[in-house]
C-alpha cells in the first residue's frame, strides 16, 4: 500500500505536515526521531489522517494535490477539521481501536486509529 498522511505537531499545534510513504509506521518514527530535517524542530508529531492507495502514482498525485492551493483548502475543510463529536462506527472485522471516519466528501474515506 501507498499512503498519503497528515501530521500535526504536538509541541507546536499550528505546524502541519503532508507526506507520502509506503511504510507509514517507519515514516512516522522517522519524523518523531528527528530524521526528517523539515519536521525535526516541531517534534513530536501525531498522525491526524492517512489515506491508503493501491497505486503509487495515485498516492503521489494526491499528495501533490494536497500541497497545491486548492488542495490546501480541501484538506483544511475535510481532513484537518477536528473529529465529529458523534462516535464513529467500528469497522467490521477490524482490530480493536480501528475506526472509520467518513469525511464530508463521499469520495474520501480514511481509516484512523484513536
Can you describe this structure?
The chain has three helices and five strands. By secondary structure, the chain is an alpha+beta fold. The protein has one domain (2-113): GIY-YIG endonuclease (3-Layer(aba) Sandwich). The strands form two sheets. It has a three-stranded antiparallel β-sheet with strand order 2-1-3. A hairpin with a 6-residue loop joins strand 4 and strand 5 (109-113). The protein is globular, with a radius of gyration of 14 Å.
Summarize the topology.
Elements: E1 2-9, E2 16-21, H1 24-33, E3 45-53, H2 56-66, H3 69-78, E4 98-102, E5 109-113
Coarse shape? globular
Q: What is the highest CATH level, the class?
A: Alpha Beta
Radius of gyration: 14 Å
Could you tell me the mean pLDDT?
82
**CATH topology descriptor:** GIY-YIG endonuclease
What's the architecture in CATH terms?
A: 3-Layer(aba) Sandwich
What is the beta-strand fraction? 25-35%
* Total strand segments: 5
Low-confidence stretches: 94-114
Structural class: alpha+beta
Strand order of the largest sheet: 2-1-3
